[in-house]
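Design a sequence for this backbone.
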């Protein structure tokens, strides 16, 4: 890495809204370096050798938790894993008590996923540790947005001027909001597409286009980011059936081949194959879904490394 200590402008990573364009560019530059590390025979560096990180997940997670854990191990950090379902939280312990108990074990950094929006911000004001938001309710998921934008940059050389359509369950998606904020900061145009019941009413105030016709959105965009239908967050029925949703907003190879241009397909995962996207699309050469997974580790290594650098200033 460069000799001068490079850090972000913020102590925590709570949301994309807190990052400057230079912060995002620095994360991408650092992630490029770590991608080289990940492709070496020995995929490990001692960068966080003296740092202890607690992964605190109050919601189920497989991909994000494993991606963060792998990033931490690649950086030689010490790791404490904590799942709320098997902890004293289920006995009524508060968020602050839980984290303070973990911090008493001399933890330097907390990676947290929580069902309530703003949980990371709340925590950052009450505990003496750096907080990385791994998803707070339907609010933000900053590292997912960073890896998505990084994957687009890798595909096209730059994000500026590209047209990105975010398609599906925008209403319940923390990925959508973080992506909109990140892509706008990097100069991309953004459109959201889905049934009116799954598009937030305020969304146009974020400077995005709104489209309810899938074909129009696909013909407009360079990149289609297909969101999962989040049934676990839906307390009422937002559409008649998954089959009808798939017929109206599902992306299959026939639709992809009918377009006048070749677009790139993304998905934040986990994929509901046959609902928002079919297997032949997910596994096609136009898909960069596996690139997103690989880039997720490099981006999270970059974020953790840059935040940890502040401790050494």
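Sequence:
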């Amino acid at each position: 890495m460069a000799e001068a200590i490079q850090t972000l402008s913020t102590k925590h990573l709570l949301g994309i809204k807190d990052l400057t364009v230079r912060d995002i560019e620095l994360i991408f530059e650092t992630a490029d370096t770590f991608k080289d590390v990940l492709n070496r025979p020995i995929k490990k560096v001692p960068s966080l050798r003296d740092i202890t990180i607690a992964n605190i997940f109050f919601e189920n997670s497989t991909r994000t938790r494993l991606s963060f854990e792998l990033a931490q191990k690649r950086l030689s950090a010490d790791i404490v894993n904590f799942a709320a379902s098997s902890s004293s939280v289920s006995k009524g312990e508060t968020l602050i008590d839980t984290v303070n108990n973990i911090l008493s074990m001399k933890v330097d950094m907390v990676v947290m996923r929580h069902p309530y929006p703003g949980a990371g911000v709340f925590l950052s004001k009450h505990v003496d540790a750096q907080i990385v938001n791994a998803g707070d309710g339907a609010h933000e998921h900053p590292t997912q947005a960073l890896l998505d934008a990084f994957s687009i940059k890798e595909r096209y050389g730059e994000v500026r001027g590209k047209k990105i359509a975010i398609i599906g369950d925008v209403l319940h998606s923390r990925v959508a909001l973080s992506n909109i904020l990140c892509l706008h900061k990097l100069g991309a145009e953004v459109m959201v597409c889905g049934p009116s019941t799954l598009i937030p009413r305020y969304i146009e105030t974020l400077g995005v286009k709104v489209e309810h016709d899938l074909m129009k959105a696909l013909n407009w965009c360079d990149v289609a980011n297909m969101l999962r239908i989040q049934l676990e967050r839906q307390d009422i029925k937002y559409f008649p059936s998954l089959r009808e949703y798939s017929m109206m907003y599902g992306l299959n190879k026939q639709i992809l081949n009918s377009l006048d241009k070749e677009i790139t397909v993304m998905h934040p995962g986990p994929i509901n194959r046959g609902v928002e996207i079919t297997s032949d699309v997910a596994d096609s050469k136009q898909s960069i879904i596996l690139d997103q997974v690989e880039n997720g580790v490099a981006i999270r290594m970059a974020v953790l490394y840059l935040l940890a650098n502040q401790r050494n200033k």
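The longest strand covers residues 130-136.
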